[in-house]
Amino acid sequence: MTELPEIGAATGVASLAWLLFVLPALGALVLFVLGRRADRWGHWLGVLTVVASFVVGLLIFIETTGLPEDQRTRELSLFEWIGVGGLHVDFGLRLDPLSLTFVLLITGVGSLIHIYSTGYMSHDPGRRRFFAQLNLFVAAMLVLVLGNNFVMLYLGWEGVGLASYLLIGFYQARPAAATAAKKAFVMNRVGDVGLAIAIFLLWTNLGTIQYSEVFARAGELSTPVLVTVTIMLLLGACGKSGQFPLQAWLPDAMEGPTPVSALIHAATMVTAGVYLIARANPLYNLTETGRLIVALIGVITLTLGAIIGCAKDDIKKVLAYSTVSQIGYMILAVGLGPAGYALGITHLLTHGFFKAGLFLGAGSIMHAMNDTVDMRHYGGLFKYMKITSVTFLLGYLALIGIPPFAGYFSKDAIIEAAFDAGGWQGWVFGGFATLAAGLTAFYMTRLVCMTFFGEERWRNVTSEDGREYHPHESPSSMTVPMILLAVGSVAAGFVLTNGHLLADWLVPSLGELQEAEPGTGALPHSVIPWLVLGCTVLGALLAYVFVGRRPTPVEQPQEVSWPVRAVRNDLYTNAINEALFEKPGLALTSAFVATDDRGVDGVVNGTGSLLTGSSGLLRRLQTGFVRSYALSMLGGSVLVVAALLVVRFS
Amino acid sequence: MLLILLLLPLVGAAVVASMAGNQRAAKLTAFAFAIVELVLTAVAWFAYSVADAEAGTRFQLELAVDWIPAFGTRFALGVDGIALVMIALTAVLVPIVLGFSWEEKLPAGRTVSGLMALILATQGLLVGVFAATDVFLFYVFFEAMLIPMYFLIGRFGGPRRQYAAVKFFLYSLLGGLIMLASVIGLFVVSGQRLGQGTFSWGELQQLAATLPESTQIWLFLGFFVAFAIKAPLVPFHTWLPDAGQQAPVGAGVLLVGVLDKVGTFGFLRYCLPLFPLASQRLAPLVLVLAVIGILYAGMVAIGQKDLKRFVPYTSIAHFGFIALGIFAFSTQAFAGSTLYMVNHGISTGLLFIVIGLLIVRGGSTLVADYGGVHKVAPLLAGTFLVAVLASLALPGTNSFVSEFLVLIGSFPREPVFTILATVGIIVAALYVLWLYQRTMQGPLRGTAVLGAAGGPGTVIDPVAAAEKGRTSFTDLGKREIAVLTPLIVLIILLGFFPGPVLDVINPSVQSTLTEVGLVDPVGATR
């Protein structure tokens, strides 16, 4: 078992850590309360509070790096939130390398996306509401990662769920958006039940929900309890992070504005599940079964997402399934235990950069293309949108893992660790992870070919609202964040992994990164990078041959083989959900309503009439109120006597 | 102090009722009485000493005079933390309810002042119910508070008000009579044991531990049925949707928000401490009813077509949580249930009022007549969202704290029931968000929003509709904002800072657990 760090009190800049989430929360509050009065300047307040929060985070980070490694875990207790009997829930923060890493990711990428949104949402009448909700999200996400106990985590967890619900449903007048928002919230709640039950189990068995105490005493948990807790936490993670079997809401969430897809549904919120498992590493370290289930879920999801991504024509849906798949990699990594926690977080960060960049690129394209998301309407856009295209292509190279771009370092490390898992796991985990890398290259190359190259198909069609297309580059408020994220996509992988920089920084939170002995894995480390690269190149080539070099029909071909049809229909995952839960649930609901209106009421009305003799008394009760009341009192005394007799005799 | 709190609203009711000729003056008088009551309640709140309660003083602010010496019954008042927070909840809700009812459209021949007088009368009797420390006195208030509520529903309600009022009355009366049997039973038993019969809660509680389990079970059942009808547990619940649907909104808030809580309050104050053995023996039965209530009523709420029936069904589900916490026997669960009573009063109050505002505008109580309201009334839609989020116990709202305490406090003793109840949070998300989607989101539609010209199911472009002035649907006005703001502030404030309320509740739930003869299953040694 790894050593748990000493916990000190937060002093210096760190004692101001509450500002991190209070600033954006205040921003949201002001924007909500002032309403239309803040329409003109509201978006700047939104940007300002998040940037200020980033600065505070950066100062705390710098201060922390100046401390010796064993003093980098600090706590700040603000007040007692809930206290009854032996239960004490602190409104407390834990500042350690893991939470600070997330703080920088959330506020850093959050700032960029807020700035981007000032351009993207400039013509939207709901701009102020958008920034209020985006600020709310940042505040809740910071509470999620900063809390020093499981209930604070839950507060942030459902808080980001609310923000996500509001932002997916931002275009409220669109029924599809409202439905997607509700679906996201409800599927997340399924996961939340898991998280809640895990908390209840920890409380029952350890009498505490504080991280430090739970982790210190994790060894006292019996194996069945421990395994159940880890599975329940995983259920929570599956809901929030769009992992199998709760992945179906995430692609639908693309109904939200594109900056939301970038920030919430790619870079930050959906990675909360990875955070949760990494945070609870002292629990997962104790149970191989728990870790194995995590890794299996990761493998299933990363494969599923990559397969479905291959057949989508909606650019945001392709990226969404790509996110599902990439988070699958991260979940697989943290499921490998001490050999993978830091790798999962590394991939989470690089993915945060390049996927946010890709989504902002997609938003820029939509901005130029009358909000059309159908890639069959695109083609040859490279010429018209140079900055968008170049930044997008850098993100593309990072995602498919071409050296020396970010994804190469972070994803290959996970695949290597997966092959090292030993036994059948090594082959299964490593094999599917490699296969999915090839699929990733296929769907991304297909996307790039259909969007930036080939025939300019948009010349011959109009968008859904009947307008012609006039592609153009986006304003600098949008391109600058894209450029910055592209720089991250290029450099982050090398910088973070060089000399184990990130892994070493995370040691106080996650323990030492344990690498397998050479020669014990399924495949030698000298072979794996070449194998993965080979698969990637093969996938990209296939996409180039089948999509890039052939003309793309503007309409989706309907005469296709059954595998293509299955993949287009999300491998029937939605249909299965519908048949298993929605339809029976609705039927049950109708049945209950009918029962309640007639059945239960009928029986009770019946007995009521029996008791009171006839409905005539009903009428008399209305008129001769007092007299009947007195009469009933008399009836009551009969009951009393009866009851007394029973008592006497028993 | 308590006597003033009890009498002031009753006097107010009489004064307001006598002023029917001058509506404006009557309304202002009613409001003034409610505000003075609120201020005096605040005084009582600060006069209540948490330290004394922790030291073991069961009741404070006590007052007792002989009433009917022959029966050994006394006019005895006093509060513990649980009763105090309920009185405070009532005092907060009444001015809001009066403010809402200011321009209420009533059936022909009824005046707003009459409605207000009855609301004040209900308040006074509620104070009596919560503050009584004599079992017979409690019974009298328990029955007496039916009367103003019966008239509120039967005279001021919707089209089927007569039916709903009688149904409400019969159910409550039946429960009350069964309880009366137990009350008298208690007197007889105490007479046998002590030589001199008593109704004093304190003396009866002392006696309780010595009673054999079978006697306890019979007496317990009398109280239990009455309370299970009042805070309806499935299957005693069908009167509530009718009453809630037909009652005027202000009365509905008091009915679901406070009056029904007398049932759950009764569980905590009477069933558990007076019949500890019976409570534990019969707990599984209650827990089954509670969990059925959470899941079944939640699912029925999903399918409701009428807005005013929707709120009662969500409340029945919430009462399931409260009952679960009470019969799970831990301080966390007890405190959670007590706080739940307060929080549910606030959040359901808000939900009921917002729905009332919607109905005032649309003239229909049917869900299907509304759609896309956010387009024409964003503030109303936003307030509705706050209300439903509090209803699904989102963290950051007051309801989360109480629901979380109930569940975490129930889990150690009752893991299976708690897990089933936790599944209820998914059902809650479904019923509130689906309702929100149907009424507030999507394109403008429905006859209530678009007027008769819209026709059922017609979808109209919102911009065009607004330009042509085809919808007269307006957003919240100043008085309405003033009525809603305190509730929203309380929802958020108590979501993050429940401490002051929990401090008052905690010593009393600790006493209750001791009276049941149990200790906390987890974390007792602190």
From TrEMBL, chain A:
GO terms for cellular component: endomembrane system; membrane. It is found in: Endomembrane system; Membrane. GO terms for biological process: ATP synthesis coupled electron transport; electron transport coupled proton transport. InterPro entries: NADHpl_OxRdtase_5_subgr, ND/Mrp_TM, NU5C-like, Proton_antipo_N. Residues 81-131 form the NADH-Ubiquinone oxidoreductase (complex I) chain 5 N-terminal domain. Pfam families: Proton_antipo_M, Proton_antipo_N. Its main location: membrane. The keyword Transmembrane applies. The chain crosses the membrane at residues 12-34, 41-62, 98-118, 130-147, 153-171, 192-209, 221-239, 260-278, 290-311, 318-342, 348-366, 387-406, 426-449, 483-507, 527-547, 629-649. Residues 148-434 form the NADH:quinone oxidoreductase/Mrp antiporter transmembrane domain. The lineage of its organism: Bacteria, Bacillati, Actinomycetota, Actinomycetes, Pseudonocardiales. Keywords: Membrane, Transmembrane, Transmembrane helix. Signal peptide: none annotated. It is a multi-pass membrane protein. This is NADH dehydrogenase subunit L. The keyword Membrane applies. It comes from Pseudonocardia thermophila. It comes from the Bacteria. One of its GO terms (molecular function) is NADH dehydrogenase (ubiquinone) activity.
UniProtKB/TrEMBL annotation, chain B:
GO terms for cellular component: endomembrane system; membrane. It comes from the Bacteria. This is NADH dehydrogenase subunit M. It is a multi-pass membrane protein. One of its GO terms (molecular function) is ubiquinone binding. The keyword Transmembrane helix applies. Signal peptide: none annotated. It comes from Pseudonocardia thermophila. Belongs to the complex I subunit 4 family. GO terms for biological process: ATP synthesis coupled electron transport; electron transport coupled proton transport. InterPro entries: NADH_Q_OxRdtase_chainM/4, NADH_UbQ_OxRdtase, ND/Mrp_TM. The chain crosses the membrane at residues 28-47, 82-100, 112-130, 136-156, 168-189, 217-236, 248-270, 282-303, 310-329, 341-364, 376-396, 416-436, 481-499. It is found in: Endomembrane system; Membrane. The lineage of its organism: Bacteria, Bacillati, Actinomycetota, Actinomycetes, Pseudonocardiales. PANTHER family: NADH-UBIQUINONE OXIDOREDUCTASE CHAIN 4. The keyword Transmembrane applies. Residues 132-423 form the NADH:quinone oxidoreductase/Mrp antiporter transmembrane domain. Its main location: membrane. Keywords: Membrane, Transmembrane, Transmembrane helix. Pfam families: Proton_antipo_M (PF00361).
